[in-house]
Specification:
The complex is a heterodimer of chains A (289) and B (487).
Chain A: E1 14-19, E2 22-25, H1 31-50, H2 69-93, H3 96-101, H4 103-120, H5 122-125, H6 149-158, H7 183-196, H8 207-217, H9 219-222, H10 248-257, H11 272-283
Antiparallel strand pairs in A: 1-2
Chain B: H1 33-51, E1 68-71, E2 76-79, E3 82-84, H2 90-110, H3 113-118, H4 120-136, H5 139-147, H6 154-180, H7 185-193, H8 199-219, H9 221-227, H10 230-237, E4 244-247, H11 249-252, H12 258-266, H13 279-283, H14 303-314, E5 322-325, H15 327-334, H16 346-368, E6 372-378, E7 385-386, E8 392-402, E9 408-415, E10 421-424, E11 436-439, E12 443-453, E13 462-471, E14 477-485
Antiparallel strand pairs in B: 1-2, 2-3, 4-5, 6-8, 7-8, 8-12, 9-11, 9-13, 10-12, 13-14
The chains are: A mainly alpha (289), B alpha+beta (487).
Chain lengths: 289, 487
């Protein structure tokens, strides 16, 4: 290795390294850069001591502060509940009818209800409550179990056919599968049911027979005119809204196999004021009675 | 083949450092016309800045009574009779455009008069120089004190401390005035002195105290010469007609002593008026010699004009050897023609017209702006709902804006789908067909509005729907257009 020497052009010293007559100028890392670099190393060591850092076989080093993001989240959630608490108490104390009349409480209930709806109800009823086949649309004015605020609260609390002791009971029987009605009878009554809400019917079907079958088998739940019965969750057959569809084939399927959609009971899973907020939210989607 | 050039390191010339150290400037005090204008403008600008937050303006009960207030928590800007909402931020855009055009107009008339008279950097630096002069004496004394190698005596130390504490006091007052624009000034002053004010107020005061102290006390003309972009932009925007502070070398050259010049004049020979007294250089706050011609360091404050005029009066020569002028006129005078001061030129006319246009648009927009507004957002999920009787319902989130300082009642109508029925969720209107809602003063109200229409009357998939609100007292109307869609 050659000696370090002064390079006249640049005014810098060389490192003494030399390759084929080419000399390397000595340009060390800037002092501030090095100091920063060493500082980061020191920082890292401090971090190891204070915070969780090293994975062990079955655990990890916990650090002097015993810090845990999980614990931090728990604290924040507790704080959030505390902040919400006061407002939610006001919501819990107000009667359902009063909530809708007070703009501030209504806004709070709708906001809380919307959030709770997204977390709990949207998987079946859709994020906007528009429903799907077999899952009622909550925006319309057709209610299986009633659309008043109290009735909505009841349904949310105990569900439908959920197994809860207070749940809504009552199901569409499997008239075909259980041998109550024959195939051709089911076809006839399906056409009759279609005619109740003004839908087209198969040409030449026996209206009188259809009416007779309906009167003998269906009126106990759906009523003599087919207007349904919210006590039993029997849909109104005379309106334009069909939970499973209004096609002849769909109706035959419904009558043959029955229907018994399930909504879980939310009492115990959601606190009362959240259920209240949910009810107000659903009620104000547009269809509330 | 290219010849390989060999550089002999021994022949490389050492040019030394390209860095030039700053020469500290010690401006001499001056008396005269432009100095008086500067004092006047400084008093005006600082007066407005420091006192404006305390001006009151009655806006009625519940509204802030500060004439100029930037109310960030409530997103409101108050300026005397004007109250702006965040969505009206375009007025500030207009204001900035006018400010830029005014700067350009000033530039095409009188060069960098903004820099010389109105720029905060100049105004505060001027104030700090005044304090420095009052405490440490004028140019020569300050230079002597700075150059003195004697150990510091108590008198000198107290002088320095007095100067800096005064500077800090002004800087602190500057930062203090700034925060007063953001909340009720008298209340904040009370809180500040009792140490009850929010931390953010103290932080901002500290920041602005530091910037004022550094910029006006230490960096001074370096801000103008090295930091500010305006001299560069100005140089690109200016033309040969702009009246800059100019040394009239047609009159001044050749420079001679008073005695020599008088001798020459006695013989009827021409003699320059400049007597090389260097008063213009001594007075200059950026430390330049204006006789070298236009230069980027010149902020065109006109103090050299005052300094020169005082000398010219003493030696009995006409004043304004230095004045607001341009090279064209110097050339014309040398050619024996009268000077032309072309203030009215295409560019000044265009700038003035543009300022008038933008100002006119803003004024028109301000006078005709709606104090009642409505925004409509159609529900996306579901966009439409079929009801049990077959009719169609669309739901909308409607936001009403009432910019007036009092509550008012509006009615809502819709035009669009035939036989449409309107319902406001949670509203118990006594007129259900034409719901009435109360809008709180100076706020927005959000409501959910349901529109239901029979489907057989509406064969179109999508029908434009117009929401119209009418203030039942004032008759003010606002509307928003959306669509009514079928499932």
């Amino acid at each position: 290795m050659a000696e370090s020497e002064l390079d006249k052009v640049s005014g810098k010293t060389t490192t003494g390294h030399q390759w084929d007559g080419i000399k390397e100028l000595n340009t060390p890392l800037p002092r501030w850069w090095l100091i920063t670099f060493y500082a980061t190393i020191l920082w890292a060591i401090g971090y190891w001591v204070v915070y969780p850092a090293w994975p062990l076989l079955w655990s990890y080093t916990r650090g002097a502060l015993n810090y845990s993001t999980r614990a931090a989240v728990a604290v924040e959630l507790a704080n959030l509940e505390k902040i919400r608490g006061d407002k939610m108490i006001a919501l819990g104390a107000a009667s359902l009818a009063d909530i809708e009349k007070d703009p501030a409480l209504l806004a709070l209930a709708r906001a809380r209800g919307k959030a709770a709806f997204g977390d709990n109800c949207a998987p079946c009823h859709g994020s906007g409550g528009a429903g799907a086949k077999g899952y009622p649309n909550l925006n319309d004015d057709d209610w299986l179990w009633g659309g008043s605020l109290d009735q909505i609260v009841q349904t949310i609390q105990f569900g439908a056919r959920s197994g809860h002791t207070k749940t809504h009971e009552g199901a569409m029987l499997a008239f075909g599968k259980d041998g109550i009605l024959k195939r051709d009878e089911i076809g006839t009554v399906a056409n009759y049911v279609r005619s109740l809400s003004g839908l087209s019917t198969r040409q030449g079907y026996d209206v009188a027979a259809g009416a007779k079958i309906f009167a003998e088998n269906c009126t106990s739940c759906h009523g003599e005119a087919g207007n349904g019965n919210q006590e039993l969750g029997a849909p109104n057959l005379t309106d334009k809204i069909w939970l499973y569809g209004s096609e002849e084939a769909t109706l035959i399927e419904t009558i043959t196999n029955g229907r018994a959609g399930v909504m879980p009971a939310w009492v115990g899973r959601l606190d009362p004021s959240t259920i209240k907020a949910l009810a107000v939210y659903v009620h104000t989607l547009g269809g509330g009675k | 083949m290219n010849k390989i050039v060999q550089i002999n390191p021994d022949q490389v010339e050492d040019v030394g450092s390209l860095y030039a150290a700053r020469k500290k400037v010690y401006p001499q005090s001056v008396f005269g016309t432009f100095r008086r204008i500067k004092w006047g403008l400084m008093a005006f600008c600082l007066g407005v800045y420091y006192l404006l937050p305390f001006v009151r303006w009655n806006r009625g009960l519940g509204a802030p009574d500060q004439a100029v207030l930037i109310d960030l928590p409530n997103s409101r800007f108050y300026f005397f009779f004007i109250e702006l909402w965040p969505q009206e931020v375009y007025y500030f855009t207009g204001l900035l455009i006018i400010a830029a055009l005014t700067l350009f107009l000033m530039n095409s008339v009188g060069g960098r008069i903004w820099c010389g008279y109105l720029c905060p950097q100049t105004v505060w630096t001027d104030l700090f120089y005044a304090v420095e002069r009052l405490i440490e004496g004028d140019r020569r004394e300050r230079m002597r004190k700075a150059a003195s190698a004697d150990p510091l005596k108590l008198e000198r130390i107290s002088e320095i401390m007095l100067k800096h504490s005064n500077w800090l006091l002004i800087a602190w007052w500057t930062g203090g005035a700034w925060v007063l624009y953001f909340t009720d000034a008298p209340t904040l002053v009370k809180e500040l002195v009792t140490f009850q004010a929010p931390a953010i107020a103290y932080i901002w005061i500290a920041i602005l105290t530091a910037t004022t102290y550094l910029l006006a006390g230490f960096m001074r003309e370096q801000v103008c010469v090295y930091m500010c972009p305006w001299p560069r932009i100005q140089a690109a925007l200016t033309d040969e007609w702009a009246l800059n502070v100019t040394y009239r070398y047609d009159r001044g050259e050749k420079r001679r002593s008073v005695k020599k010049a008088n001798e020459l004049r006695a013989l009827g020979l021409p003699a320059g008026d400049c007597v090389n007294c260097y008063q213009c250089v001594a007075a200059c706050p950026t430390g330049i010699d204006i006789r070298n011609g236009p230069q980027i360091d010149c902020i065109q404050c006109g103090l050299c004009i005052d300094a020169c005029d005082n000398v010219m009066k003493k030696i009995g020569r006409p004043t304004r050897l230095i004045g607001y002028d341009n090279d064209i006129n110097i050339q014309r005078r040398m050619a024996g023609k009268p000077p032309i001061y072309g203030i009215v030129r295409p560019r000044t006319i265009i700038y003035t017209a543009l300022i008038a246009l933008v100002g006119g648009i803003m004024l028109y927009a301000l006078l005709t702006r709606s104090l009642l507004d409505i925004n409509v957002l159609h529900d996306r999920n579901p966009v439409a709902v079929k009801l049990s009787d077959g009719s169609i319902r669309n739901a909308y989130t409607v936001r009403f804006l009432n910019k007036r300082g009092f509550d008012r009642v509006v009615t809502i109508d819709v035009d669009g789908p035939p036989y449409a029925v309107l319902h406001v969720v949670g509203d118990d209107s006594i007129t259900p067909d034409r719901p009435m809602v109360v809008l709180g003063r100076d706020s927005t109200t959000e409501l959910r509005v349901l529109v239901t229409a029979p489907s057989e009357k509406n064969p179109e998939r999508s029908i434009p729907i117009k929401f119209r609100i009418t203030d039942i007292g004032l008759g003010e109307v606002a509307f928003a257009i959306d669509n009514f869609v079928l499932p």
